[in-house]
Amino acid sequence: QICSQHNAEALSLEQAFHRMAQTEPNLDHDVSWFLLPSYWAKMVVALISFICFANSYDGDFVFDDSEAIINNKDLRAETPLGDLWHHDFWGSKLSSNTSHKSYRPLTVLTFRINYLFAGGFYPVGFHVINIILHCTISVLMVDVFSILLGGLQFSNKGRRLNLAPKTSLLAALLFAVHPVHTECVAGIVGRADLLCALFFLLSFLGYCKAFRENKEGHNFSIFWVLVSVILGAIAMLCKEQGITILGLNAVFDALVINKLNVLELIQKLLHKDKSLENSGLLRKGLLFRITLLMSGGATILYIRWRIMGTGPPAFTEVDNPASFADSLFVRAINYNYYYSLNAWLLLCPWWLCFDWSMGCIPLIKSVSDWRIIALAALWFCLIGLICQALCSEDSHKRRILTLGLGFLIVPFLPASNLFFRVGFVIAERVIYLPSIGYCILFTYGFSLLSKQAKKKKILAVAVLGILLINVMRCALRSSQWRSEEQLFRSALSVCPLNAKVHYNVGKNLADKGNQSAAIKYYREAVRLNPKYVHAMNNLGNILKERNELQEAEELLSLAVQIQPDFAAAWMNLGIVQNSLRRFEEAEQSYWTAIKHRKKYPDCYYNLGRLYADLNRHIDALNAWRNATVLKPEHSLAWNNMIILLDNTGNLAQAEAVGREALELIPNDHSLMFSLANVLGKSQKYKESEALFLKAIKANPNAASYHGNLAVLYHRWGNLDLAKKHYEVSLKLDPMAPGTKENYNLLRRKLEQLQKKGG
Questions:
Q1: If pLDDT is split at 50, 70 and 90, which confidence band does 286 have?
Q2: How many CB atoms neighbour CB 290 within 10 A?
Q3: Is residue 155 part of a domain?
């Protein structure tokens, strides 16, 4: 009974199709593919899209997640919500010269909600939302592709009909399992693209609803047109590409609702044909709707421009080398080469990389470069498709090819470098929306091949094979995005010339304590890009820790020579010069760092250490005080202030500073220890004991904590407790300075007391 019911539904769908679109060829007719009821088709798409990316749910925060989420103060409850509307995606002020001008407040808002519900930076919740979003988008694609491939038709009851159930299912599956989407789904910052795509599709479907109660587009709902504009604005507030849906809605209106022949219209305009007045443009309201869309788009862009400011985004040559080329020819050739690589990633998404910048794709500088072939192939295919889209006598072919090209090209325009410089060479995440166009063209090509093929099932099996391979590729790529180590190492084979890949592998190794391996990758990064100042800085830091001071100084000096405002390198150079006992140069380097970064607590801390070494105690205390003002939780600066005041006999001041520090950082055991020492010297034994015990509870394996508590008990006269903690201290560290001597003194005293008592 269930099967017959489904067959009846499919039959009624075909009958409706023949009644309402007799002149329109059926794209599904010659396709050998699964025919499922709408809700079953959506269930299948949702399930398969979930399978593709499910293994990314428990991944870490990786790559850009650190800056966009962990280090982004806009996620924290103490940051006013209003700040989100004046900050960029990374939490910087839009008015700042260093801002990338990526204005995505709604995406940041979802991160903030994630953070608040999770009670901190726990990546599982962030990943789960991304997976759910992709599944939702893939399900919506069934409806979107049914319109784009089958046309927009409604039943007498106003219910939209799916006139291409087979091909819309195939296209939605192609979209759901495309491996190039892994960055958007498995990388948490990819949520910007997912949210943008969600509202992009809702805007399109909302626009289609404007024609639900109308015949041939004569009447329409202004309400739904305005809803479509609002949803487009929301899409843009998630990511910049969202605004392009308004242009695509206009293209859809012209081609599907008004059935315009673009080539015929252009010819009439050129020849000033009087029949143009009767073409139906005004009668069907197309111009009015396009005016609404364009006015809405212009208003949205103007508001965004006012918020963002007039300054261009701040990018460097390593981010996008072609955009900095002096020659217009070199820029144009390389931009087109980048387009061909993006197209290849859609066709063959096997070589995927988290970052394609910094030498990954060397510039084409002459026409003799063999890579010019890729440009020629791209434009040969595009021109062929455009000619068919404009000149074909088959209106159905014209419509599908134009829509396919529109959805492929228009959402990509903001990333094309045509209107403004972008901060990347290739970014897989920006192909998320253009892949809709690719899926349309692929599915249409499959239908044409099916029409010609004698063995349609073999062709269907081949396409099914492609889908299965893509599912496996998605699962593999998702697992690589689960940790930075896997992600960075996966890029070594794809982009061996990318200095940033080697830098990130080195940084990941250094963070894990494997300095020897990290040095190797940092050296390779510097070799590939001799001006890579961040690699020089990190390599210099490791060499400094390994006491290879001469080479460390050379690297850091070169880094600040290449980039004079690189504050971190100036500070690290100062640390090296301090270690080499070149104190005046070190002081100068620290002050240069502070000049370039006014709020630099770590630099003030290191400057204080320099002054302490020079016995300039007042200057040292002032420097550490500055560090704590800029960063109240700077434990090392507080500790050094307490210790210096303690060592110079200023016990009252040391106590006051210690109490102030513990109010700000109440759970810091090192501060408890330092203040306990001061209180013990001030003979405030009870309070000192309480702090020592609290510090030991927080860090029970610190030999010095037990040793100093033993000294306190020794002074206080609690000799048994003193003996106990001396023994614990020596057990933890048999070579603890002074502890053994104090313990021996205590034992002799105890022996003397025993003799007297005897």
A1: confident
A2: 18
A3: yes
DSSP, collapsed to helix, strand or coil, labels residue 580 as coil
**Is residue 397 in some structural domain?**
yes
pLDDT in tens, 478-512: 999 999 999 999 999 999 989 999 999 999 999 99
Total-model pTM: 0.85
Check if the beta carbon of residue 28 is closer than 8 Å to that of residue 164.
yes
Q: Is residue 494 part of a domain?
A: no
- Residue 638 to residue 377: CA distance in whole angstroms: 64
Q: Which residues pair with 160 in a beta bridge?
A: 154
Domain boundary among 464, 486, 521: 464
Longest CA pairwise span in the chain (Å) = 129
Where does the pLDDT of residue 217 fall: very low under 50, low under 70, confident under 90, or very high at 90 and above? very low
Contact, 186 vs 56, CB < 8 A?
Answer: yes
CB atoms within 10 A of CB 122: 13
Q: DSSP class of residue 154?
A: B
Q: Where are the alpha helices (DSSP H) in 548-634?
A: 549-562, 567-579, 583-596, 601-613, 617-630
Q: CA neighbours within 13 Å on the CB side: how many for 716?
A: 23
3-state class (DSSP) for residue 238: helix
Q: Given pLDDT bands bounded at 50, 70 and 90, which one contains residue 757?
A: low
Q: Which CA distances in Å does 133 have to 483, 528, 557?
A: 21, 39, 48
Helix axes 123-150, 435-452, angle to 10 degrees: 50
Do 255 and 401 lie in a common domain?
no
Contact in structure between 479 and 59 (CB atoms under 8 Å): no
Cβ pair 192, 241 in contact under 8 A: no
Amino acid making up residue 270: L
Q: Quick one: pLDDT band at residue 276, thresholds 50, 70, 90?
A: low
Residues 129 and 48 reside in one and the same domain: yes
**Cα angle, residue 538 at apex, residues 537 and 544 outer, rounded to 5°:** 90
Please indicate whether residue 42 or residue 119 has the higher confidence score (pLDDT).
42
119 and 161 together in one domain = yes
pLDDT at position 612 is 94
Q: Are 285 and 366 in the same domain?
A: no
Please, are residues 222 and 293 in contact by the beta-carbon 8 Å criterion? no
Q: Is the pLDDT of residue 8 over 50?
A: no
List the one residue out of 650, 579, 635 whose CA is nearest residue 624: 635
> Which of 438, 464, 490 is the C-terminal boundary of a domain?
464
What domain range includes position 69?
A: 37-308
Q: Residue 684: in which H helix or E strand, if any?
A: none
CA R_g for the chain:
34
DSSP state of 25: P
* Residue-level pLDDT at 614: 94
Q: Using an 8 Å Cβ cutoff, are 449 and 180 in contact?
A: no
Mean pLDDT of 275-287: 61
User: CA angle at residue 357 from 53 to 538, to 5 degrees?
Assistant: 95
Instruction: Check if the beta carbon of residue 579 is closer than 8 Å to that of residue 585.
Output: no
Tens digits of residue pLDDT in 633-670: 999 999 999 999 999 999 999 999 999 999 999 999 99
Q: Is 213 in the same domain as 125?
A: yes
Average pLDDT of the residues of the chain: 88
User: Phi/psi of residue 426, each to 5°?
Assistant: -135, 140
Count structural domains, the chain: 2
Binned at pLDDT 50, 70 and 90, residue 272 comes out as low
Q: How far apart are CA 30 and CA 20, in angstroms?
A: 20
In this structure, is residue 585 part of a structural domain? no
Strand-pair partners of 93: 87
pLDDT in tens, 676-704: 999 999 989 899 999 999 999 999 999 99
Map residue 443 onto helix, strand or coil: helix
Report the chain's terminal Cα–Cα distance, integer Å: 104
Q: What are phi and psi of 160, to 5 degrees?
A: -70, 135
